[in-house]
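call fold(seq) -> tokens
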Amino acid sequence: YYMVVETIERDIRKHAQLGGNPVQFIESINRMRTLMSLGWMRSMLIKAATNARERGYKRIDIEQIVNIDPFDE
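ret:
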């Protein structure tokens, strides 16, 4: 995961320079956005799993994920 982020960051820096190809820059930004959303989903699933474990549940229901406050640390 971190190696992919480093590669994308390098691509963004390379293509952000004036005169660079804007299409490649936009593609790099979109890849970074996808990775960030995957990290967010992973975080929500970890919180849901922790809550389920604390309550003695054996599975995570969609309601448990939806009811999580994403900004609660």
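Residues 51 and 64 are 8 Å apart (CA to CA).
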